[in-house]
Amino acid sequence: MNPASAAPGALFLDAEGLYRELLHGVQRLLQPDTQLVGITSGGAWLAERLQKDLGRPGEAGVISSAMHRDDYARRGLSATAQTRLDFDVNGARILLLDDVLYTGRTIRAVLNELFDYGRPAHVALAVLVDRGGRELPVQADYAAARVSLPASQSLALARDAGGLFTFAVETAS
Question: What is the DSSP string of the chain?
Fold first, then answer.
């Protein structure tokens, strides 16, 4: 089954199928010293699961965009996990993981946060879904799927108690 298939007028994304695609893509991007870092919250879930599925030691890093968002005054500080990087960022090879790449503004904020911790040697980006709509010149090194959605819709990754992923398409009110 195609991980991204649509009936007329509806979009269905098989998040578990896309996760398997992401796992294969990440394996090609990794070097032995690469650190996995997930963007809160969906990217952190992905990084945590990838760390285990790839048999990598330790825990994946978590990074938040909250303090560097250009809409901070409007959104405020979110209640999601805060940045946790249990390695020296200086000179590190980092693979950022996120669930959905859209405008590029979250990635810009995350890069600012990352550089608050040091100067990495290399940063790559892998995402579950690239939905287009970029407002900044940001591109994923790997995307498990590329879809088009109107600006009035968003993709929300969810994780159940067993750690399995699902996607929902939500319409803004």
Answer: --SEE--TT--EE-HHHHHHHHHHHHHHH--TTEEEEEETTHHHHHHHHHHHHTT-SS--EEE--GGG-TTHHHH---SSPPPB--S--TT-EEEEEEEEE-SSHHHHHHHHHHHHH---SEEEEEEEEE----SSS---SEEEEE----TTEEEEEEE-TTS-EEEEEEE--
The residue whose two tokens read 């750690």 is 163
Tokens of 139: 């591109």
Contact 103/130 with Cβ under 8 angstroms?
A: no
| Cβ partners under 8 Å of residue 80, min gap 6 | 40, 41, 64, 66
User: How does pLDDT run across 96-137, given as a tens digit for each residue?
Assistant: 999 999 999 999 999 999 999 999 999 999 999 999 999 999
Residue 6: CB atoms within 10 A of its CB come to 11
CA dihedral 150, 151, 152, 153 (to 10 degrees): 70
Tell if the pTM clears 0.85, that is, is over it.
yes
